[in-house]
Amino acid sequence: DAMVIQNPRYQVTQFGKPVTLSCSQTLNHNVMYWYQQKSSQAPKLLFHYYDKDFNNEADTPDNFQSRRPNTSFCFLDIRSPGLGDAAMYLCATSRDLGQHYEQYFGPGTRLTVT
Amino acid sequence: AQSVTQLDSQVPVFEEAPVELRCNYSSSVSVYLFWYVQYPNQGLQLLLKYLSGSTLVESINGFEAEFNKSQTSFHLRKPSVHISDTAEYFCAVSRYNQGGKLIFGQGTELSVKP
């Protein structure tokens, strides 16, 4: 089945140690999104790629970066994780931009910062 | 700015009872409305959406939601819930001119008891 895959499902990193989260998709969608969901809070959009064009949300900290080397893969890099970055990170894809295009979500990666 | 408020963080209910999960939004412009469901250890899945037309929208598993513009609400209802409906439910809005960007509410945890 076509799907959105996130690896690993659980990631533990140390304070200040760079960490990379991975997302891949078999849907061949143009758009890939990264959301941050802290405990008992709403998912919050960090940034998205439309094809190779990167779009950062205005309030996303500089500590968060992303790479999309090809259509299928997108990475979330946290350069110096702080305790406040512990959260569930959700990857999503959509065929195109716009409300008519459903976003398909992966299962998420739960990040713990020690 | 737009925001989404889900009025109940937790809703416990007995099997076969009716349920309503409440969602209100604030926006100065027209919006599109969505309900997503997140089962344990899974990603978010689109349950139903309102883009235009009939204000009552239905999902394939018996849920329905009604867009009420005057009350800025999009409450989710089901006349008879099943154990399998136990999940977290997120309401989301998208402004018509923001390329499908989703703003989520904080979620309502529906717990169906036998």
Q: Can you put this structure into words, describing what you see?
A:
The complex is a heterodimer of chains A (114) and B (114). Helix content of chain A is 0%, strand content 51%. Chain A has strands spanning 4-7, 10-13, 19-25, 31-37, 44-50, 53-56, 64-67, 73-78, 87-94, 104-105, 109-113. In chain A, the strands form two sheets. In chain A, strands 2, 4, 5, 6, 9, 10 and 11 form a seven-stranded mixed sheet that branches. Chain A has a four-stranded antiparallel sheet with strand order 1-3-8-7, with no helix packed on it. Chain B is mostly beta strands and 114 residues long. Chain B starts with a strand and ends with a strand. The mean pLDDT of chain B is 90. In chain B, the strands form three sheets. In chain B, strands 2, 5, 6, 10, 11 and 12 form a six-stranded mixed sheet that branches. The A-B interface holds A 4, 40-45, 90, 92, 94, 97-108 and B 4, 9, 32, 36, 41-46, 49, 51, 90, 94, 96, 99-107.
